[in-house]
Amino acid sequence: MSTSAETDFALPRRARLHIGDLALRGIAGAAALTVMIVLILIAYKVTQEAWDAISTFGLGFLTSSEWNAVTNQYGARDLIWGTAVTSFFALLFAVPISIAIGLFLSELAPRRLRGPVGALVELLAAIPSVVLGLWGILVMGPFLEAHVEPFLIDHFGWIPLFSGTPSNVGLLPACLVLTIMIVPIVSSICRELFDSVPSDLKAGSLALGSTRWEMMRGVAIPQVSGGIVAAVILGLARAMGEAIAVSLTIGGTARTGWSLFGSADTIASRIANQYQGAATHLQQSSIAYLATILLVLSLGANLSAALIVRRIRRRMGAG
Amino acid sequence: MSAEVNPLTVVTRRSRRRKRAGIVMEALATAAAILAIVVLAIVVISVARKGLPAINADFFTKNPAPVFQTGGGIKNAIVGTLIMTGMATLISVPVGVLIAIFNTEFAPPRVAEGMRIALNVLAGVPTIVIGIFIFGLLVVGHGQSAIAASLGLSIVMVPLIARATEEVLLLVPVTLREGGMALGATRARTVITVILPTAVGGIVTATIVAVARGAGETAPLLFTSSIFANSVVTDVHQAMASIPLTIFVDSESPSVADQQTAWAAALVLMAGVLIMGVIGRALSLRTRRQIERAR
């Protein structure tokens, strides 16, 4: 939609260019080219740093849980597990909340409240991750350890997720901090999506006798479901890549297990904790290998989100 | 007994259930919004409550006290964050604005679309990976430096500024462009004298938002400017202390005094970032209104 708006008032592109125009186009083009170069350089440099680990461990790196500086053996299985669990639960909490906030801001809230409430939710995204991490480890973690985790263990301890002993650091605090970081991002995209649903569709549904909720469930949400998927993917990318807040709250002992309580570690958090202090060259290279994995995951997520958005635009343009 | 009831007013059990479901779901959606605001309030209040007691003049004007001594402040970190964020801003504003100009004024639609995806991908690169990248590119062999850290921060900031600026440039009314061209101005001149001045409010907003983001970033500094002196450093070839890293390191310390410093530093950072966020938002609303009036 925005591309057609842009071509609407673009000047004829083949108009003759003067020297000043050529100069500006050259400088602006160079700036644009820099983005491409930086992207390629990032991929090249990170892979290069990781090369020794990649050639030593190969793909076995992904399935080995060994992380031992003495024997100089490294594997990422436990970290991949930690990233998968934290991201999954963060999304599990964040996605329904974000869709609900999007619906509230777009359909339910009184008009006067929409601006301020939306602004407050977006301010949540402005809090630096290191501040959230500090709060997570010194306020939320101890609170969970003292009140929430004992309760869950007492009543639901038979579920593997809630087995174990209470701890102020671990998967649960990390999931919750990630949830706080993802909600503002996903909810503001959802709000824009719901705002974009043509109002005659909404009105038509209401006129047929739907309640407001039936209109949202039957018309608004299905209408933008592709966009919601893209938003969720972007939230996932954010959750996987967050290093600082997670490394402060998760504890840092890599493990594979179902319990949400107690220390674990993720790919991004391990990079933050060990890259600088790496004991051997191979350890440092293995951490760069972790960064390569993270880079591939984030590229995949962002590109697939972009593809989804493009397909939606095409369809809307055609219809 | 006649069964003369108006079918339109029949309240069946089903319709009551539908209504009740609607009320419940609307209440849940409202609760979600309230929850987000409550979490924001809890974080802000607990940082303020824990940070305020340690904030005094010394906190801003003194360097950290030597080990085993009390007192001191984070002057070196404040200066470091100002210098590094400042340098990153000086790099990323021109680059970001130029990219936006390229996209809206010069690039064929396909190229512009590709650029937009590239910017999104760059914005999506985890900041910790950017830290590793800058480390391998600039720190290995040269040592840590504020310059390296600023470049890392500017990689975070450029996509933010470029995307937001592009949006504002697209809002500039076509009549203004045509007016410039009709007066015989070259395209470059139209951009510089007509389009940019119209969009300047939006560019300032984009910059404020990006600065707020950059000032709070920890990961790009972790490997590029983390081994620093306990005093103010102004040489950009050396590593500088920064507020985010002070929080990161002190929050993991078992010492209560260090944790206190972390809270106070977090309060300073958060206050700065939130104030910039509010100003940025207010400005952006004003710019949009102004441009719409010009239409």
Spell out the blueprint of helices and strands.
The complex is a heterodimer of chains A (319) and B (295).
Chain A: H1 2-8, H2 19-57, E1 67-68, E2 73-74, H3 77-108, H4 111-126, H5 129-156, H6 171-196, H7 199-207, H8 212-223, H9 225-241, H10 244-249, H11 267-274, H12 281-318
Antiparallel strand pairs in A: 1-2
Chain B: H1 13-51, H2 57-61, H3 75-106, H4 109-124, H5 127-139, H6 146-171, H7 174-182, H8 187-216, H9 219-222, H10 243-251, H11 256-294
Helix pairs in contact in B: 1-11, 3-6, 3-8, 3-10, 4-6, 5-6, 6-8, 7-8, 8-11, 10-11
Query: What is the overall number of helices of chain A?
Result: 12
Number of domain modules of chain A: 2
Unreliable parts of chain A: 1-10
- The count of DSSP E runs of length 2 or more, i.e. the number of strands of chain A, is 2
Number of strands of chain B: 0
CATH architecture of the largest domain in chain A: Orthogonal Bundle
Low-confidence stretches of chain B: none
Which chains have the largest interface?
A: A-B, 100 and 99 residues
Characterise the protein shown here:
The complex is a heterodimer of chains A (319) and B (295). By secondary structure, chain A is mainly α. Chain A has two domains: 11-57; 60-318, MetI-like fold. Chain A has twelve helices and two strands. Chain A has helices at residues 2-8, 19-57, 77-108, 111-126, 129-156, 171-196, 199-207, 212-223, 225-241, 244-249, 267-274, 281-318; strands spanning 67-68, 73-74. Chain A is globular, with a radius of gyration of 24 Å. With 295 residues, chain B is mostly helical. In chain B, helix 3 crosses helix 6 and helix 8 packs antiparallel against helix 11 (256-294). The longest helix of chain B has 39 residues, at 13-51.
